[in-house]
Amino acid sequence: MNEFELLLNATPTGALVILGLTIVIFFGIIVYLAIRLNHSIQQAALNNGRGNQYLAAVPADRIGTVNAVYQNTRKNLSSALILTLVGGIFGLQRAYLGKRKSAMAMFLFFWTGIPSIVSLFDLTDMPRIVSEFNLGVIESLYNQIAAPKLEE
After folding, report:
1. pTM of the predicted model as reported, rounded to 2 decimal places
2. pLDDT at residue 17 tops 70
């Protein structure tokens, strides 16, 4: 018998040791994911602040156009979170955010279980991912519609 079998079969304390290690690992993973979520929320706040700076720089005569296009193009955090919880294993959250190649890969390999782990990380990173998408939309709109034109 190897050491693991001896530890497990020798005494009831062997099973308690394994249970204790499992609990420690589980809580370690929970703490790690909580730290990732906190970091993601901080990054989202920074991105939202940058987006507000772009919106504040839009000239008054173009703000209506920029707001209308932005409201129709931006992504909603709660929708992304729901898609991650309900269909994360199939990559629905990635398709929603326009990441079609990774969404297709997750859909094709859902049976392996790997997309479940990826969607767990997506869940903790979703505030940052959505805010980066929305910031990209605002930057693009600002550059296309509202940026001051250089005179030649």
Report:
1. 0.78
2. yes
Using the structure block, give the residue that is written with the tokens 């709660």: 78
Amino acid at 98: G
- Sequential DSSP letters for the chain: --HHHHHHHH-HHHHHHHHHHHHHHHHHHHHHHHHHHHHHHHHHHHHHHHHHHHHHTS-TTTHHHHHHHHHHH---HHHHHHHHHHHGGGTHHHHHTT-HHHHHHHHHTGGGSHHHHHHHHHHHHHHHHHHHHHHHHHHHHIIIIISPPPP-
Number of structural domains in the chain: 1
Range of the domain at 8: 3-146
In a domain? residue 151: no
